[in-house]
Design brief:
By secondary structure, the chain is an alpha+beta fold. It has helices at 2-14, 16-56, 86-95, 129-135, 159-169, 187-191, 230-233, 241-248, 262-269, 329-343, 352-355, 358-395, 397-405, 410-445, 453-459, 470-496, 500-506, and strands at 59-63, 99-113, 119-127, 140-145, 155-158, 171-173, 197-199, 201-206, 215-226, 236-240, 284-285, 298-299, 308-309, 318-323, 347-351. The chain has two domains: 2-50 and 360-506, no CATH class; 107-286, no CATH class. It is built from 17 helices and 15 strands. The strands form three sheets. A six-stranded mixed beta barrel has the order 2-3-10-5-9-8. A two-stranded parallel sheet has the order 6-7.
């Protein structure tokens, strides 16, 4: 072994040109694979940070009657099934020790009606806003007005939706109680300022396939944006959960004990008359009084006739769940579904990727493309190194033939070639990994940003932030070992086949 090691080092020094070529290939391969792993890891980390931690959670719970797991980016107007008997679902969730937190919510599509006779639409997310923003790390940022307080009625409109309202209907919405802020005008708004219709409240009519929606006027409390991946979440406007329920008329038989207003009862009675929903008399003021909320929106604290607001006791069609261990999503989804089934709770859990539909698919495609690129580099490096080593072996026919003539066995030749290749891999490949690792923080410090939606998915956010952890470095080392190993197989076979006769005939 010692003799093989000495001869291998001598051969490397003797054939410096070929050694350098092979080493340069190993260096570039290791560098590109390291950077590729850093980009993939950074993307996964960014998506986890900006989607899981700031919008969906690790797991999403939906009704067992919901056909598609994609409940966030479904076609406009398509209903999401209501989670029935939510008390059972909540009990199951509260008993699972592996959950870090969960937040029930409502997602829906609403028409926006105006006195001018125009009809537009809005995507709505009904939540207990302070709890929502707390759970998702204050991803909602204020542009104008104010954010919703605990149990406060009102709506937060995304700045993108505000621009769309103006482009579609010539309506510029502003927060109620706040002056018109012209510095936030879009280019179109500045151009047609004199013809602008300014509103600080809107009439919403939930688009329900059951024809149970009603008109609800709600104040606009603020204009907001999402701090991360706003280009994807900008379609969602936030509404307090109680107004959302009134808008979609989530009323059940248990509502008989609730103190409903006369207007609300008339709405329920006339739910089959679609034209009646557009009458002025059917508009329910979302801020008009606490007694207008149905039992679906409240939980009776005692047997008295006074209904106390409690959003946890009402109706929902989605629950966002965060886990204590983010690396066990699939396992926890199975555990939750088993727990729901055992408790007879009409719900099922899906992963966050499934819940965001095409967005998750797109992220998966990009991740797959990056992984494919790294594998492509891997195979290219194997082929190039293998060809180079094979040619080097053939050029050393006389040397190898003489070694065989003086009694060197095939095993000796194999060990010698492995030592030569391994030495190049350690020196040049190791240098490539070190340079790649050193480049990651430099690339991150450059704060390369992207406005393109696809690039934002690639970056895991607006800023390019590759990440290289210990695991990623180990993966790079394993890839280097595999490249070296695969690339050495055929050249070793070629070297073993060289005989003393080949050496004599070559001379």
């Amino acid at each position: 072994m010692k003799i093989a090691f000495v001869i291998a080092l001598r051969n490397l020094m003797r054939h410096k040109g070929k050694s350098f070529v092979i080493g340069a290939i190993l260096f570039m391969g290791a560098l590109i694979m390291t950077l590729g792993n850093a980009v993939i890891s950074g993307m996964n980390r960014g998506l986890s940070e900006n989607i899981v931690e700031r919008f969906t959670g690790h797991v999403v719970v939906i009704s067992e009657a919901q056909e598609s797991a994609n409940i966030l980016f479904i076609p406009m107007g398509k209903d999401i099934a209501l989670i029935k008997d939510f008390a059972k679902v909540q009990k199951v969730l509260s008993e699972q020790t592996y959950l870090a937190s969960y937040l029930p919510a409502a997602r829906g599509f609403s028409f926006v009606l105006t006195e001018e006779g125009d009809v537009d639409f809005a995507m709505l997310l009904g939540v207990d806003f302070p709890e929502y923003n707390k759970m998702f790390r204050e991803n909602v940022k204020l542009v104008e007005g104010k954010l919703l307080d605990k149990q406060e009625r009102g709506m937060l409109i995304s700045q993108n939706r505000r621009v769309r309202f103006f482009n579609d209907q010539n309506i510029w919405v502003k927060p109620i109680g706040f002056p018109l802020d012209e510095k936030n005008f879009s280019d179109e708004a500045k151009k047609y300022r004199e013809k602008m219709i300014v509103k600080d409240s809107l009439v919403l009519m939930g688009a329900s396939g059951d024809s149970t929606a009603s008109d609800v006027r709600t104040d606009i409390k603020g204009i907001m944006r999402y701090e991360f991946l706003d280009d994807y979440w900008k379609f969602f406007n936030i509404l307090d959960i109680e107004t959302f329920r009134e808008c979609f008329q989530w009323v059940t038989n248990a509502d008989a004990a609730a103190n409903l207003s006369k207007d609300t009862k008339n709405l329920i009675a006339r739910e089959e008359n679609l034209d009646a929903l557009f009458n002025d008399s059917t508009v329910v003021a979302a801020k008009s009084g606490k007694a207008e909320i149905s039992t679906s929106l409240k939980k009776l604290k005692d047997k008295s006739s006074v209904a106390k607001p409690n959003t946890d006791a009402g109706a929902y069609n989605v629950v966002f769940v965060k886990l204590k261990e983010s690396g066990k999503i699939q396992e926890r989804v199975k555990d939750l579904n088993a727990a729901f089934k055992a408790a007879g709770a009409p719900a099922r859990a899906v992963t966050w990727q499934a819940a965001i539909g095409q967005l998750g698919d797109m992220a998966g495609i990009i991740r797959g493309a990056l992984t494919g690129f790294v594998l492509f580099i891997f195979f290219v490096a194997v082929i190039i190194i293998m060809n180079t080593l094979s040619m080097a072996a053939l050029e050393r026919t006389a040397e190898l033939g003489m070694m065989r003539a003086v009694g060197a066995p095939k095993r000796f030749v194999t060990v010698m070639f492995l030592i030569e290749t391994a030495s190049l891999a350690v020196i040049f490949g190791g240098l490539g990994i070190l340079v790649g690792a050193a480049s990651v923080p430099i690339l991150k410090a450059m704060h390369i940003t992207a406005d393109n939606n696809i690039l934002q998915l690639l970056f895991g956010g607006k800023t390019f932030a590759p990440y290289l952890g210990v695991t990623d470095i180990l993966v790079g080392v394993i890839e280097l070992v595999l490249v070296t190993g695969f690339a050495s197989v055929y050249p070793i076979v070629v070297a073993q086949r060289i005989t003393p006769l080949d050496a004599i005939s070559r001379d």
